[in-house]
Amino acid sequence: MTITDTPVDWHTRAKQLVFRTHAFIDGQATPSADGQTRATVNPATGQELAQIADCDERDVDRAVAAARRAFEDGRWSRRSPAERKVVLQRWAALILEHADELALLDSLDAGKLITDTTTGDVPGSAAIVRWYAEAIDKVYGEIAPTGPDALALVTRVPLGVVGAVVPWNFPLEMAIWKLAPALATGNSVVLKPAEESPLSALRVAELAVEAGLPDGVLNVVPGDGPVAGRALGLHQDVDVLTFTGSTAVGKLFLGYAAESNMKQVWLECGGKSANLVFADTADLDAAAEGVCAGIFSNQGQVCSANSRLVVQRSIKDELLDKVVERARGIVLGDPLDPASTMGPLVSDQQASRVLELLADGARTSRTLIGGGRAPGTPSPCFLQPTIFDDVPRDARIAQEEIFGPVLAVFGFDDEREALAIADDTAYGLAASVWSDSVARTHRVADRLHAGTVSINTVDMLDVLTPFGGFGQSGFGRDLSLHALDKFTGLKTTWYHHG
Ligand code: NAD
User: Fold this and answer.
1) CA within 20 to 30 Å of 187's CA: 84, 149, 258, 440, which one?
2) Same domain, 254 and 397
3) pLDDT score at 5
4) Is 8 a residue whose pLDDT tops 90?
5) What pLDDT is attached to residue 96?
6) Considering only CA atoms, which residue is closest to atom 39 of ligand 1?
7) For the chain, what is the domain count?
């Protein structure tokens, strides 16, 4: 065995980690104003990892003031895009240099598989930072087609102080989805990570300063949603609020903006995405693989999880046999063990929420596999992969986002019925379609009410394309050059030559 083949001892590495426990304000690790802390817990063991600053309104005020000072004096906002590019590229390189550390922080904090954080979350985050770094000095303004006696320039200007409030399911990546385009365009940011998963955000902010980001441009205020998150939403000096999280909390941010300074609000919220499998799919094994990946990845805690399988009746039994067989093969266990293929949910509270919906499923539908806590696992956060068949369209498990490893199955006879089932929720984030007919996939994709439709695969997303939804999945778009629209305003400068 060569040295590079030596398996990493993640438990030993975890013991060597030094957690950042203070807020990060104006380039400094800063205790909360009143010294309050809250525990962050490893859901795989139930053990406390660290006590983290529990920020309140005063801390948010300090962070916003630092961000405002930085924005107004131009230490970042007035640097050329090419200069910002260099700093962001260094930041991307530092993220990769500290890849194992950042991956471990997310795995410990949120119960995510180390095989996912090392191969997905962390390199994906670095790639997004690098992509926006490389893009930002290639974005041009416009010259309007005036007559010869005038020159009208249309430029994109940064908006000022951005508040970013993010969830725990991809702690580093969700933060980076906001930070990379917001910083590339010259804004200052105050980031509030989720209560459950503040560790990677605090560390990556420190790395940004090490890369050359001036103090005060990026601030992190860990804290309670209804306290620190609300304070950011209501702040009179925050210009834009970008949010990823539940639909219920997203709606609150619209209210906060209305009650305060009419800040722009961008919402990326929940989903109940459908996976449609038609009988003319030749490779049902690939479809079964996709169905499982679509709902069981990250323990189902994915906003665009394909939580509803909508399958043509003539192939339903055959497909379900394959899906159930794969679900039985899932290895529930320690997220730091590379042999595990599913870890715990993020918290006991989240597991209890999912268990409540499992009880509803058991009452209204037919359980094919799973249905409760996983026996013999080291914490109550481990739930069995669960599949319900014959789900009534109005059941809670058919309509509500579960955010756990729970698949609801529906049969259909024709395309019209498939579309009616797929579009029968308040959401519109994503959908997948399996069929070997190009005409059908094109027709169905066109009709589906979803921000992203994946054909003969599931849940595709990439920095190259916008990600976001319709309906109560929100209206913001993360990723791609379109994300720059959220963090810049169009400014017209009209020269009159009289
Ligand atoms: P959540 O809405 O409970 O929390 C998200 C963030 O909002 C957290 O930082 C939280 O502290 C904060 N918050 C909570 N209550 C608040 C309040 N009263 N005022 C201000 N801020 C508050 O969501 P969650 O449980 O952390 O994450 C899961 C949700 O995120 C799911 O609904 C999922 O679909 C959604 N999500 C969406 C996307 C997307 O891009 N559409 C991506 C990932 C997750």
Assistant:
1) 258
2) no
3) 58
4) no
5) 98
6) 268
7) 2
Residue 9 lies in a domain: no
Q: Specify whether 44 is located in the same domain as 58.
A: yes
What's the average model confidence in pLDDT over 128-145?
A: 98
- CB of 226 shorter than 6 A to ligand 1: yes
Same domain, 455 and 326: yes
Report which ligand 1 atom has the smallest distance to the Cα of 469.
41
Domain boundaries, position 230: 15-269+474-492
pLDDT digits (tens, 9 = 90+) for 298-351: 999 999 999 999 999 999 999 999 999 999 999 999 999 999 999 999 999 999
Q: Which H/E stretch holds residue 155? A: strand 150-158
pLDDT of residue 4: 52
Query: What is the distance in angstroms between the CA of the first residue and the CA of the last residue of the chain?
Result: 78
Distance CA 374, CA 387 (A): 14
**425 in any annotated domain:** yes
135 part of a folded domain = yes
270 lines ligand 1 (CB under 6 A): yes
Provide the CATH number for the domain around residue 170. Answer: 3.40.605.10
Closest to 10 measured CA to CA, from 126, 93, 99: 99
% of the chain residues with pLDDT over 70? 99
Nearest atom of ligand 1 to the alpha carbon of 350 = 25
Q: What whole-number distance in Å separates Cα of residue 370 and Cα of residue 253?
A: 36
Q: Of ligand 1's atoms, which has the minimum distance to the CA of residue 271?
A: 34
Q: Are residues 193 and 97 in the same domain?
A: yes
Count of helix runs (H) and strand runs (E) in the chain: 17, 19
Q: What is the mean pLDDT of residues 254-261?
A: 98
134 is catalytic: no
Compute CA distances 470 → 146, 401, 428, 430, whole Å: 36, 15, 5, 9
Quote the CA–CA distance of 351 and 377 in Å, as a whole number: 13
Give dist(CA 410, CA 418) in Å, integer: 9
| CA distance to 13, 20, 24, 59, per residue, from 28 (Å) | 26, 11, 5, 13
264 and 159, same domain (yes or no): yes
The answer to the question of residue 467 being in a domain is: no
Residues 237, 291, single domain; the answer is no
Please work out whether the CB of residue 260 comes within 6 Å of at least one atom of ligand 1.
no
Strands 23-25 and 28-30: antiparallel
Q: How many C-beta atoms lie closer than 10 Å to residue 267's C-beta?
A: 22
Q: Residues 336-391: pLDDT tens digits?
A: 999 999 999 999 999 999 999 999 999 999 999 999 999 999 899 999 999 999 99
Q: Work out the pLDDT band at 497, boundaries 50, 70, 90.
A: confident
pLDDT averaged over the chain? Answer: 97
**In what side-by-side order are the strands of the sheet with 406-412?**
366-369, 386-389, 406-412, 308-312, 274-277, 430-434, 452-455
pLDDT for position 240: 98
Whether the Cβ atoms of residue 352 and residue 404 lie closer than 8 Å to each other:
no
How far does residue 197's CA lie from ligand 1's centre (Å)? 12
**pLDDT band (50, 70, 90) for residue 2:** very low
